[in-house]
Amino acid sequence: DPTAPGVRLRQRVFDPLVPLFDGRTRLIVAPDGSLWTLPLECLPTDLGEPLLAQYGISYVSSARSAAVMHADRAPEPRSPAHGPPRSSALVIGAPDYDLPRAASTAAASTAAASTAAASTAASAALADSAFRFGPLPGTRDEACAVADVFGVEPTLGAAATTACVRGARDPLAVHFATHGFALDASAAGGRLAGAPLLRTGLALAGANARAMDGDDAGVLTADEVASLNLRATALVVLSACKTGLGEIEYGEGLASLARSFEAAGAACVIAGLWSVPDAETRDLMTAFYRRLTPECGVADALRQAKLELWRRHGDVRGWGAFVCTGAWGPVTLRPLDAPGAAALG
């Protein structure tokens, strides 16, 4: 239907650029403003299929970053003299959101005071909004399936705390299967209006046991993420709702959780722009990792997984939320300093 809203939107924001492509179908997009919240590949063609069927689209924070970014990123090997091997992956899923505060605080007792303060501020905002995180049964199965791909044990339930994220040793890949949140500027009575990175984050173990005093182990904010050292991390997958959303800063991009993982050093981040049922998310992620090989890069693997779900379910709401930002090509996802190390696949 040429009068459908999606078609009209495509005609305004995408079609004028097509002549510039000169027949190319692999697109690297550096959005600005509200375009950060629009996955172009979901827009329908005149035939009713998504642009995804015709174009491979991924995103970068800026045109400058695209010019200097390497599609293939592998961390340097580490000699035995520099400590134990890197972990191949940290896979976190199905946190115990109702973990008692005493237990979650003890798990996070080694956290730095600055990150604890950031976590507490976000917890206060969530507490004021009377927001509670409900169980996501599919995230346990998803985390176990992803962990099996990497040959690691998943971090689940009471163990899925902010402390385990801060204590991760140079993970080559990080996968979160949990709730994400993105509060508006009015949250907590507007006390965090000027701090967008404190209003978005991930819910981990103890998230429902929030309190307004002391440390809190249940909330990992974008502010905390930006201070992590993920320079050896090739891929972060935020299999959670609204992890790609944040405050739009015109000319500067989006102050979001995904952007914070990039700032921490992660080469590529996959994040969600809206809420997706956990069953559909699990199916998409399973299809994505199944296709991620040394020959098939991150963006192409995600595209193929989306195409599979589109052909199976059709509805864009079930597969279109997740977008790839950063390095788009093949990545090495096995520890180069581990015995028998090889790229994922």
What's the main sheet like? 6 strands, mixed
> Ends: how far apart?
41 Å
Radius of gyration from the alpha-carbon trace, in angstroms: 20 Å
Low-confidence stretches: 70-85, 109-114, 211-215, 335-345
The counted number of beta strands is: 13
Beta-strand percentage?
15-25%
How would you describe the shape? Answer: globular
Mean pLDDT: 79
Q: Strand order of the main beta sheet, please?
A: 4-3-5-9-12-13
What string gives the helices and strands in order?
Answer: HHEEHEHHHEHEEEEHEEEHEHHE
Account of the 3D structure:
The radius of gyration is 20 Å and the shape is globular. The chain is built from eleven helices and 13 strands. 30% of the residues lie in helices and 16% in strands. A hairpin with a 3-residue loop joins β10 (246-249) and β11. It has helices spanning 5-13, 18-21, 63-68, 101-107, 113-128, 137-150, 162-166, 222-226, 257-263, 278-291, 298-313; strands at residues 26-29, 56-59, 90-95, 155-157, 173-177, 180-182, 200-203, 219-221, 235-239, 246-249, 253-256, 268-272, 322-326. By secondary structure, the chain is of the alpha/beta class. Mean pLDDT is 79; it is low at 70-85, 109-114, 211-215 and 335-345. The strands form four sheets. Strands 4-3-5-9-12-13 form a six-stranded mixed beta sheet, sandwiched between helices. Strands 6-7-8 form a three-stranded antiparallel beta sheet. It has a two-stranded parallel sheet with strand order 1-2.
